[in-house]
Amino acid sequence: MALRTLIARNPMRAAAPAASRGLKTFSLPDLSYDYGELEPAISGEIMQLHHQKHHQTYITNYNKALEQLDAAIAKGDASTVVKLQSAIKFNGGGHVNHSIFWKNLAPVRAGGGEPPHGSLHKAIDSNFGSFEALIQKMNAEGAAVQGSGWVWLGLDKEFKRLVVETTGNQDPLVTKGASLVPLLGIDVWEHAYYLQYKNVRPDYLKNIWKVINWKYASEVFDKESA
Amino acid sequence: MSLFNCITNQCPLGSNFGSSNKLGSCGAVPQLGGGAQRRDKSRNSRSITAYYGLKTPPYKLDALEPYMTQKTLEVHWGAHHRGYVEALNKHLAKNDLLYGYTMDELIKVTYNNGNPWPEFNSAAQVWNHDFFWESMQPGGGEMPTLGLLQQIEKDFGSFINFREKFVEAALTSFGSCWVWLVLKREKRCLAIVKTSNAINPLVWNDIPITGLDVWEHAYYLDFKNDRAKYINTFMDHLISWEAAAARMARAQSFVNLGEPKIPVA
Predict the structure, then answer these.
(1) What is the 3-state secondary structure (H, E, C) of A132-187?
(2) What b-and-e string marks burial along A30-60, b requiring 16 or more CB atoms within 10 Å of the CB?
(3) Mutate which of A47, A53, A85, A190 to disrupt the B interface (most B C-beta within 10 Å)?
(4) B52-88: per-residue pLDDT in tens?
């Protein structure tokens, strides 16, 4: 009897709005600090634009793409489903990456810039030789990204080691390896630094370490390597 | 051994030559003909001669105000474009094999059919930005005329439709991109092409007619995140249809767009 009700109700479900069909829509996460609190490493103007405009746009377009995907799946429209993949990867990736990025940053009053202690510190030393060597490596790889992308410190859960990787555009770290978990990501798209640093990306990379939230990275590391 | 054996995968030194990118280590560097020996061989200096210079835009840096500010030109041309030229010269100083190529050839060769060498990024971006400055003019915008307009109407239906498609292409490109109006050599028609990072239509042997830089650095100082406003400003006030028409005229010496008028006896 329950099954009959379900089938009878199906034609209605296709016409109902996405939210009531159970499709989760995403919204802009709040920052745990004010826009200006990361100065002088990152200007308040950049933080506001980055959060309220860029990240919001990724979320808006991601929601749109998901709705279209949902409709295409319901209709069995395979070619549209495939066509939407790049928009989903780009906008969804943008949302995922920036959500991590905001947590990777913290004002100095909340521990921003303070190097990690404990197990993450030990792992950095054994994987890269020293904390300074890691910074240098990430700066070099971040500066070398052509066009738009991210530089990551990741944990490879399979091989139990730390890696430095770069991804292009808004590709999340997992596109470089299914067992990779992002601990720290630095946005090297021009919008992340241009108003303040213009074309001198290396200066942005040098300064951002002053507001990097190693506490969060340590928490993720401890949780994922348990 | 001819000059081109090293560039194609026929180098007798080994099959993974092309992928190693260590061209400087190739022992059998062919000597180019004539006076192409640019390396200074004098004993007391190892001075590197510059091979490419930074071309200045065909207008003063404030000439595009208020649509593209002097500040943007100063950074975009003076820092980014100059940086690409310097990077290219540094690459060429280490690599004898790439002497003597014209810029177009250099781009095609270093593109390496989709697996680009490090030199490609610098070379292509130098060319792209030269092309970009020349694609704009003070008092630009409006519409093309005469033959170019006719061809646009033929290939896109109307100028409005072309403009819409061009703007849409620029809006929907992900990441750091360029948008081009090209004349396709094989198909003998105009088309809109999006490319990412440094890639340009020369690598597919098509003829660019005009282009728009949609990297964030091109518009961020003037428009912040408002890419749509930048693109529309370019179309309305910056794009040089004169430059495009000149390129179109030149392109027609390579591509026959019309059917020959053979009289019926």
Answers:
(1) HHHHHHHHHHHHHCCCCEEEEEEEECCCCEEEEEEEECCCCHHHHCCCEEEEEEEE
(2) ebebebebbbebbbeebbebbbeebbbebbb
(3) A190
(4) 999 999 999 999 999 999 999 999 999 999 999 999 9
Q: Which chain B residue shows the shortest CA-CA distance from A46?
A: B224
The interface predicted TM-score (ipTM) is 0.87
Asked whether the whole model's pTM tops 0.90, one would answer: no
Ranges of chain B whose pLDDT falls below 70: 1-50, 260-261
DSSP-assigned letters across all residues of B211-258? EEE-SGGGTHHHHTT-HHHHHHHIIIIIB-HHHHHHHHHHHTTTS--S
- Alpha-carbon Rg for chain B, nearest whole angstrom, is 21
> pLDDT, tens digit, for every residue of A129-149?
999 999 999 999 999 999 999
Separation in Å, CA B129 to CA B26, B53, B64, B79, B122: 32, 13, 16, 12, 11
Task: Tell me if the bond preceding B66 is cis, omega within 30° of 0.
Answer: yes
Chain B positions touching A147 (Cβ under 8 A) are 175-176, 196-198, 215
Instruction: For residue B34, give both structure tokens.
Output: 């004539």
